[in-house]
Amino acid sequence: MNIDLLMLLRETIFLLLAIPMIVFSFKCLIELRRGKVAASRIFLREEEVSAAFRNLFFASTFALPASITLFLWSIFKLELLRLITAILFIVFIAFILISSYRLRKVLAG
């Protein structure tokens, strides 16, 4: 059995970032059910909310080149493109994690 070390590392990092992201997102959804409390907290901490959305914007800017390099890797099969794609997707998920954490801080109070 041939184990691809890059894939193993990438998937481990994805798993380590995804678990807290799921927890933060679930807690945000619970807080958003209380509409008046959530709206007032969002209004009072608008700089944190804008930072959370800024991180989502940065995540999307990393997702686009990651998708392009993944497409190019599927055509050319260059190992460098695969490595760049892995790094871009890890940064993409890290920015989403930071965004969900900041939004969780806003909604938690």
Plain-language structure description:
This protein is mainly α. The protein is 91% helix and 0% strand. The chain is built from four helices and no strands. It has helices at residues 5-32, 35-44, 46-76, 79-108. α1 runs parallel beside α4 (79-108). It is elongated. The termini are far apart.
Layout of secondary structure:
Layout: H1 5-32, H2 35-44, H3 46-76, H4 79-108
Keywords:
91% helix, elongated, mainly alpha
Compose a concise summary of this entry.
By secondary structure, this protein is mainly alpha-helical.
How many helices? The count is 4
- Shape from CA axes? elongated
Point out poorly predicted stretches.
none
Q: In total, how many beta strands?
A: 0
**Proportion of residues in helical segments:** over 70%
Assembly context of the chains: single chain
What is the residue-mean pLDDT, rounded to a whole number?
A: 90
| Strand fraction | under 5%
Order of helices and strands: HHHH
The largest β sheet comes out as:
none
Radius of gyration from the alpha-carbon trace, in angstroms: 17 Å
Ends: how far apart? 50 Å
Q: Which structural class do the helices and strands define? A: mainly alpha
